[in-house]
Fold this protein.
Amino acid sequence: MNILVKVLLFLYSFISCLGCGASQYTVSIMGTGYVGLTTGTCLADMHRNDTVRVYCLDIDSNKIENLKKGIVPIYEPGLSELVQKNIARKMLFFSDEIAEVVAQSDIIFIAVGTPTAPDGSVDTSYFYNALEQTIKAISRNPTTLVLKSTLPIGTGRKVVEYIKKHADPSITIHIISNPEFLREGTSIKDTLEADRIVIGSTSPQDLEHIQKLYQPLFQKNIPALYTDLTTAETIKYASNNFLALKLSYINEMANLCDKTGANVKDVAKGIGLDKRIGHSFLKPGPGFGGSCLIKDTLGLLAIAKQWGIFLNTVEAAVATNEYQKLMPYRKLKKCINSKELSGKIIAILGLSFKANTDDIRYSAAIPIIKKLQEKKAHIQVFDPKAMEHMKRIFPDITYCNTSYEAIKNADAVILLTEWREFKYLDFSKVKQFMRGAIIIDSRNILDPLKLSKLKFFYSGIGIS
Ligand code: UGA
């Protein structure tokens, strides 16, 4: 190899290697939920061998023991493989010895859950427990503390005050707010090919560690947005709430199309072609589910209320969403009236709140199954990944091994999740299996023309 190339390679590895003087940085992530686990795994994966050691930490020892063996507790496409790869590369580790690992860490992410409290506000108790534990254990000087959990606007400032009061004053702690924008089902791509990385801090001097850590993503031209702590926290809420507004808006347009006879798919295409609006998040459905959009709309309403602000648009989006959740059930009732539902066999295809996840939190399937149970319908369900979770809520409905088993003798089918396999069912076979001919397609993924040729009664959302 020519000497110049050797010098350049050495310089490149020196510059891209994390740490000034240190050959290896230790990063720890508190919380192995889908954000913590994906973030930790992707951080390990994006760096070259021996440049970082990423520790994912959790108080749940069972979970940690499984993760050490590469067993991932959630269904997230590609995550198990990436975890196993980075365990083998000796870049990714798991531990429940939180204080010991934090003490050796240069960068600590707090990525624990911030669920909705019974009054709709944000429950930050896990966060503050993790913060207290972290501050007691920190020993590297300097240490960077990254707030990854979605926290009420203003929490970063409180953390700064907390640290002034409780941390060892001889240690410099850089506080960073670095919200996540990962979707379940595509969380690896959303990390490694993120649209943006938002980094909030109180001073440019706090940025050294975090900039080095994200260097591999910056080299891919992923833009960074540097702000203060409060602005970064606000960007997270503003993003999820804007998505919620967009979804409730298109769902209302779909309901209007149902009345007027317009086709909402074409309406979405037509408005999406306007670059100011864009195509994404314009698919109508059974409302938005999952923990994040629901949690963050309610959370933002509660936060704004504390500041004396009423967010009309968000309030409306939440109300529309509540209404939309039962839209497939209302459509069913147009075909089979309430009294006749007793004893009818209703097949439900899809239980997770969206495709490519086993997460059923705030899935439309839950209120719809409840309604059908009230009416004493017999419910047969199938979902490729989410059935075990649903069994804990509804142990008494019939869980089937395939879609075809679920539709056997059904009077009606309600498709709730846009799993790919539902789109490609053999509908002539479906017709033979069913007792009735009603198909409610709450994701508009089926072909109405093909189904009407097969003599189904088809009802989509905004396309009937
Ligand atoms: C959401 C955000 O999209 C992420 O950017 C964010 O990081 C994440 O919350 C979070 O805060 O952790 P996620 O909850 O995984 O991600 O799911 P989305 O893909 O946003 O879907 C939310 C709901 O909207 C689902 O029920 C989905 O079926 C529905 N949806 C989505 C539609 O009905 N139509 C669409 O066009 C898109």
Observations:
- The first helix runs from residue 3 to 16.
